[in-house]
Structures are given as structure tokens and as C-alpha cells.
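Notes, p. 3: input format for complexes.
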Amino acid sequence: MDPTQLSLVQAHAWLSSRQISARELTAAFLERIDRLNPRINAYITVDREGAMAAAQRADDRFRNGTATPLTGIPIGVKDLFCTENLTTTCGSKMLARFRPPYESTVTRKLKEAGAVILGKTNMDEFAMGSSNETSFFGPVRNPWDTERIPGGSSGGSAAALAARMAMATIGSDTGGSIRQPAALTGLTGLKPTYGRISRFGMIAFASSLDQAGPMTWTAEDAAIMLRVLAGHDPKDSTSIQAEVPDYVNTLVNRLDGLRIGIPEEYFPDSLDRETRHALEEAQQVLRDLGASMVSVSLPHTRYAIPTYYIIAPAEASSNLARYDGIRFGYRCEDPKDLKDLYTRTRSEGFGAEVKRRIMLGTYVLSSGYYDAYYRKAQKVRRLIARDFQDVYTGVDLLLTPTTPGTAFPLGEKKDDPVAMYLSDIFTINVNLAGLPGLSLPCGRDHQGLPIGMQLIAPVLKEERLLAAAHAFQSATPWHQRKPEL
Ligand code: GLN
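Output follows (485 residues plus glutamine):
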């Protein structure tokens, strides 16, 4: 078997029994990246030397008995996690040459576990987008059909994994950026509870929504990754102080007694017909596994997009104020004076979508409009969160489509921001409410493109998501399908 096709569990068994060395495994992935990345554009930076050195250390750990389940596992990391001395661009010209002097907690934990970081994956600029077309480094192509988008903003992490240019990847999700690309590329993508994984060293987009998470082929692999990534971090004041369960031990094959809510607002008439059909079939699989379906309502669902597009840009406009051409990042040539330095640095360094968000954000935060927009949005956010709290008194999980349709052609929505924003309509409320959500494949459309479904759990109930997803994957073949490349 080609080692690039192994799951984390299988690879760990191969490495433990010396059927393969970490160096051989890493070399196989680097070779695949050389072959496929020019077509897919999933990586911005490939760290060959760093990866081979990490693989060498992994082999040592297997020899001296200190290996963990992630030791020697080749991983791709979204290019918004700071990696010490390794270029971290956030998909922007602004940071195209930025070499962080420090390590994000996520990448530090991966390294401490012995994982091999292959490189940094492409993304929408500052994680703003749903198609990976706003990247300064060019669009990422969907391995299932290279004329289509892979989703965004973690499009590079999705495409790298779908094309098997990594064994697992790390994404970030502010409004859907792990779950939506996972759905469009046939993967399992987990956005944990807000605060479950440290945001330290993650380049900020909207700080009250941003959350890191794993992208994997299976729920079992996601459980292995989350076990390493989750946990309190004194360097992130919003990280949660709570025990990290052994997510692998809590996986199950049956779902007897599990009550799954089907929120009517997530199945509008406009939902793609094939997606609706796949979700209906999925419900039947879940029933066969012992779960029961309950119709529920989340009445404030329709305010998701407007609420998010006030709060996220507001926070972004504040977070992105630091890119002023002085402290770090891009600086324009020959500024006339300080104002010219600020203006030209930001005009030249940011792309159109980022500028649109900054303008929107500064507008809704301006003193004349603060109450009308920002404060109002905060109140609606509370109502959205309360909808979920109410519904969880009667159900254990919610099941929804992840996206309104399958992967769309490159360019289709590029010049229509509202159409683009609507592609996250089913994922955004999960961030606004701070809940954990997971997307997993549940079918394919007539063109063979993957269809994803989303499970949403109450705060800190990631094990419930992973257990249900694992049971579903034990009974279905969708997560095993791979694109031909
Ligand atoms: N597509 C959404 C946006 O552009 C969400 C992005 C994200 O989750 N990072 O804001």
C-alpha cells in the first residue's frame, strides 16, 4: 500500500513496527507535493529541510520509546499559525516575508508530539473568504475537479489533505472555514468549542470567533489530533480550563438512545436537491445505528449572515490596525511622510476583500453607528446562542447540511460578495454561539463531488460529535472515497 494513503492509526502502526521509517514516510509526502502541488497550489511554503529533520527526530523517538500517536505523522498547517523562523504569510502580501520570532501553541504542541510539519498551506487572505480565491498566492484548486474551488478559507489545508499531500492538516474556523472546505473536498473537519484550542500565535481575524481545528479523513484521526491540540493555555486568556478527554476512547459504533435534532431552518426550499437527498439518507443511517431524529427550530437562524458580517469585520478592522508598515510586515517604498506610509502600505499590502472588511468594520464601530449596528449585532448574537441552549434541552446533537451546495466553479462567485457570504449560511451560527461543529462526508452529487453534513454539539461536547461521526463512518463508505490524481 502507498504510505501516503494511510490513516493516522495505520501510519502509527507501520512506524511502530518499523515497516516504514518516519524519514521514508516524510519523503513520500514531499515527493507527492512536488508532483501535485503545482496543479493544486495547496502549499504556500514547503519546509523540506525542517520536515526531514523532524522525521529524523521522530525515528529517534521510535527507537528510544518516546513516540506518541502523532510522532512521525506528516502534517500541513494553515499559513496563519506562526511558526518560528518559517515564513507565515496569512495568504497576504502584507505578510509575504514575515518570519515569526515565536511559535503558535498549536504548532508547538504538534512539534512536541513529534509530528512532522511539511509546510504551510494556502488560504484566503487573513482567512476572509469561502473559496480560497482571495489569497495573494493564487487560488487553490479542488482535487476532485481542478476547475472548482476547494472552499475556504482553509482551502489549502483541505486540498492538501484531499490530494494526500499531508496525512492530516490544521485549519481555522471563524465562520465555517474548517467545515465548509472539508465538506467541499470530502473530508472530516472539526471546529471545536470556542476556547478549546489555544489561539496563541494564530494570526487574528475575529478574536471572539476564531478557533483552530483538525482536518482529517476520519473522525478517529480527528480524535487523535484533538487530544493533542486541546487544552488550557496560560498564553490565551480565552482558552478554557477543562479536562481534555481521551477522544479516541469515547468513540463508539452504535448510537442507541442518541437524540438528533433536525432544525427546519437548515433545510430551506433553496437547498440543493442532491444535498437534501444525501442528508435524508444520512438520517436513515443514523436511525439504523440507534439514534432518533427530532424536528426542532432555531428561530434566529436567518440573522446569521448579517450578524456575522457586522461582528467579524468589526473585530477584523481592529485586529488589522497593527499592519501599519512600521512594526512588521510589508512597507511601501519611499513614503513621503507618516500618513503616506500608512496609506500606501495598507493600500498596497491588503487585497480587495480585506479592505472591504476593514471599511465595513470601521463603519459599524464608528460612534454614530455603533448602537445601530455593532451593539445590535451583539444582542442578536445572544439570541442566536440562546436558540441553541433551548434546543439542547431536548436533543443531544443537531444535524444540518454543511453547505447549500457542492463545490462551485472557480470565478463563479468571486465578484459577488453577498453570494460568497451565503455559502457559509449553515456554519456561521455555530461560531456566533461558540459551539463545536464537525463536517463529514455523506454522499456525492451527480458529478461525483462530495456532499458534507454537519453535526453540532453543546459546548465542550466534542466527544459526542466524534463518536457520532465515527459510528456513521463505520457504517458508510463516503470518507474512504479519494479523488483520482
Ligand atoms: N467565509 C467566512 C468569511 O469570509 C468565514 C471565514 C472563516 O471562517 N475564516 O468571513
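The longest strand covers residues 437-444.
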